Every structure is written in C-alpha cells, then in structure tokens.
Predict the 3D structure of the following.
Amino acid sequence: MKKMQTWFAATSVAVGLFLFAGLASAHVTVQPKEVPANSYQVFTVRVPSETKGVNTIKVQVKVADGASVSRVEPKQGWSYELEKNADGGVVGVTWTAESGGLKETEFTEFRMSGKVSETATELVWRAYQTYSDNSIVEWVGAEDADKPASVQKVTPDVASEGDGHGAGAAAHAGAAGEQGESESQLPLILSIVAVVLGAAALVTAAAKKKK
C-alpha cells in the first residue's frame, strides 16, 4: 500500500509539472528559438488560442529590433496588413481571420521571411492577440512575466567564422596530402629494400659456393 501511495504521489507531481509546462508554453512565439547573426530567415509566428468560449480573430506582431521583414506568406482564411515606417520598412504585420478564427483548442502558424542584422544579440518580438469578445492579450512582458514577449537568441555569424574554419580545413587538407604522399611512396621504399636484401643474399650465397 505504501509503495502504491508513493507511486501515486510521484505520478501526480509528474502530471502536474507536465500540465504546468504546457500552460507556460501556450503563448505566442516566434520560431526558431535561435538564429545566426547576418542571416536570412523564415520567421514562424506560432499562435495558440487559449481563452475559453471565444476565438482568436486577429494577431499583430511587431518586428523585432535587429530584424527586418521583406515578405509574408499568404495563409488561407486569413488576410494580412503590413505596417511600415517613413522609410518603407516593415515594422509590424497584422493577420485578421476572414471567418471564425481559432477556437480554444486550436493553433496556427504564420510565416514571414527577412534578415537578422550583423549586430543583433537577441530578437524580441511583441505580439497582440485579439479575441472575438474584443479582449486583447498583450504578449510584451519580460521572459518571466505571465505574458512574455517572444525572444530569439542570436548566435555568432557563421560567415564571419568561415575564415577560421577555412584555415583549419586547409591545414587539415595539407596534412592529409602530406600523409597521402608519404603513404604513396611507401611501396617504392619497400621494393628498394627488398631488392637490396635480395642482392645481398645472392652475394652471400655465391661466396659460400666459392668456399
């Protein structure tokens, strides 16, 4: 009985943690979680609908500082509108449902392509989720907030590290070439040694016959 109680308690804790993790992650995010600096990317906005009894009908995303957006992928059942600054750069995208929107148990993804700047260290995407009762959930808080903004980590520029990798590859290739050259000369050296040893054996045999 004691073992059964212990197992039940452990299982309850595990289930509780699983459910908490699911609830904690049920917010608007931009994927992938990590992107290289100075790279072209497809940014995927993942939107779960989680308010009981109402549907998600609109999603607005502000383009993160350090990122630029040039194109938006059309999505059936949704229209989109670009918000631009005075220079014509896209600073926000709003998707609006053309029919019922997303129910409580549904989610969807919106995609847009763009670029990560050379100097970015992280990308903070702020989102505003509108429901059919006109309530708006603002995903703009810090990472530990109830309604956090989505943050992408920016890793070092792969291209800038290419010189170092290239030098290493060249050195490796040079070493491999030298090794290959040495290995290719080995049969010749062995053949010469064999001839010398054979000649020495013949001389020794001839000397013995003369005796």
The first strand starts at residue 29 and ends at 31. The chain is about 35% helix and 35% strand.
